[in-house]
Amino acid sequence: MMLGEESTSADYWKQCGDEALANGIKGVIMMGAHWDARGDMIEVAMNPAPGKSPVAYVHPSKYVDYKLVADLEGGEKCQALLRDNGFNVKENKTFEWIHDTYLILIRMFPGGCPPTTIVSMNARFDPHFHMRVGSALRPLRHERYLIIGTGGAVHNLYRNVWAPMLKYRDNFAQETAPEGWALEFRQSVEDVMTQNRGPALRRGITRLMKHPQYRDAHATDDHFMSACFVAGAAGDWEDEQQEKGRLGAETWELTNMCNSQFTLGSWAGGQAVSAAA
Ligand SMILES: [Fe+2]
User: Fold this and answer.
1) Cα(114) to centroid(ligand 1), Å
2) Buried b (16+ CB within 10 A) or exposed e, 70-99
3) Model confidence over 166-191: pLDDT tens digits?
4) Which pTM was predicted?
5) In angstroms, rounded to a whole number, what is the distance separating the alpha carbons of residues 62 and 73?
6) Domains in the chain and their CATH numbers?
7) What letter would DSSP give residue 209?
8) What pLDDT shows up at residue 87?
9) Residue 137 CB: number of other CB atoms within 10 A?
10) FRET partner for 249 with CA separation of 20 to 30 A, picked from 3, 66, 154, 183?
C-alpha cells in the first residue's frame, strides 16, 4: 500500500536509487517478505522474463508497465555463494515478482529497473539462518551490488486499524496515535540499527525476536527476516568501524504499522551500501 502512494519514504527510496546509479551499481540483490521456500531450502529467482503478482489496494497503473530485469548472472553468483556456505539452494525459473520488491524498484529506479536478483526467505523463519544468508552474499557488495532487505519494523496486519482504508482508501489517516507496543518495538529497531555495526548488529537484530513486544509487532515472522538478512550483509568484523546505520525516513500507516527506512554504509570511498525497510 504505502509504496503505491506518495510518502517521504518513497522520496527517500528515489534518493537512494539516484545515488546508487550515480555510483555505478552493477545490480541489486533483494530479499522481500512474501516469498519463502519450504524445508531447509533457499530459492533464487531465475525467471528470465518475470511477471508481477498483483497487489491489493494499489491501482495497477502504478506498476503494470514497469519492465522488470532479472539478473541471471547475479543469480548464478548468489547460488554459488550460498552453496559454498552450506545452504541448500535451488533456482526458480517460474517465480513472478511480488510487490514487496517491485514497488521499491519502481520507486528507486523510475527510469528503468537495474539487473536484480531476488532471493527467497526460508519458511522456518529462523533469524540466524537469514542472517547467514546475508553474510554469505555480503562479498557481492565489493562487486558493486546493492543489497536490499524489504519488510517492516512494525508489521502486524491483525492489529492495524483498517477502517479508513476500507471506507476512504486512506492508509495514512492516523486518526489516533500508534499504540504503545508499536512505538516501543519501533524504538528498539531504531536503537539496534543506529547504535551497532559489525557482529553487534547481527546479535542485536536477531535478538529482537525475543523482545517482549516482538509478537505484538510481528504476528507472523515474514516481515522481520529481511532485517536479519541485512544484518548479515552489513555485520562483519570488517564493517565494525563503519558509520552506524542511518534512519533516512519513516512512514506510519493503518495507525499501527511502521515502515522505517535504514541505510547502512555509504558510497564515500567506494563503500557499498545495504538498506532495509
Ligand atoms: Fe508485505
Assistant:
1) 22
2) bbbebbebbbebbeeeebebeebeebebbb
3) 999 999 999 999 999 999 999 999 99
4) 0.95
5) 28
6) 2-276 (3.40.830.10)
7) G
8) 98
9) 25
10) 66
* Per-residue pLDDT reduced to its tens digit, 16-73: 999 999 999 999 999 999 999 999 999 999 999 999 998 888 888 889 999 999 999 9
CA 92 vs CA 8, 59, 131, 170, 273: distances in Å: 34, 28, 22, 36, 26
Angle between helices 99-108 and 8-22 (to 10 degrees): 70
Ligand 1 centre to CA of 22 (Å) is: 29
> With contact defined as beta carbons under 8 Å apart, do 98 and 34 qualify?
yes
User: Model confidence over 77-127: pLDDT tens digits?
Assistant: 999 999 999 999 999 999 999 999 999 999 999 999 999 999 999 999 999
- Nearest 5 degrees, angle CA 54-CA 56-CA 61? 60
Average pLDDT, the chain: 94
- Our CA angle for 79, 80, 82, nearest 5°, is 65
Confidence of residue 277 (pLDDT cuts 50, 70, 90): very low
Q: DSSP letter for 2, please.
A: G
Residues listed for the chain: 277
Distance 35 CA to ligand 1 centre (A): 10
* Spatial strand order in the sheet of 257-264: 88-92, 41-45, 116-122, 27-37, 145-149, 274-276, 257-264, 246-253
Rounded to the nearest whole angstrom, what is the distance from the C-alpha of residue 32 to the centroid of ligand 1? 8
The dihedrals phi and psi of 109, each to the nearest 5 degrees, come to -130, 65
